[in-house]
Write a structure and sequence with these properties.
By secondary structure, the chain is α+β, with helices and mostly antiparallel strands. It is built from four helices and four strands. It has one domain: Rossmann fold (3-Layer(aba) Sandwich). The chain has a two-stranded antiparallel ribbon with strand order 1-2. The protein has a two-stranded parallel sheet with strand order 3-4. Helix 1 packs across helix 2 and helix 2 crosses helix 3. Pfam families: AMP-binding (PF00501).
Length: 92
């Protein structure tokens, strides 16, 4: 379910817990972070239907970008961070 719905009813409830670090992100934080990321993507010129490639290790901000793309009508293309630069280039 869309995190904004939970942010309205249970803003302090954990949306995710990173077990490796103990980091906790609440629904309110996820909603705010993903909204700011969506605005940043729009300001960068991305529009509905555009594709965002995401190369990352296991980090909580992945969810910010995921929900930012969802709310903006963008497509998210995850890219395995273990790929070599030539493999990343070949996949785009």
């Amino acid at each position: 379910m869309y995190p904004g719905t939970h942010a309205l009813t249970n803003p302090g409830r954990p949306a995710l817990i990173m077990t490796a670090t103990g980091e906790i992100v609440t629904y309110a934080e996820l909603e705010d972070r993903s909204r700011r990321a969506a605005n940043w993507l729009f300001d960068a010129g991305l529009r509905p239907g555009d594709v965002v490639g995401l190369l990352s290790d296991n980090s909580s901000w992945i969810f910010d970008i995921y929900w930012a793309t969802q709310r903006s009508g963008l497509y998210l293309m995850p890219i395995n961070y273990r790929l070599s630069p030539s493999e990343v280039e070949a996949s785009s």
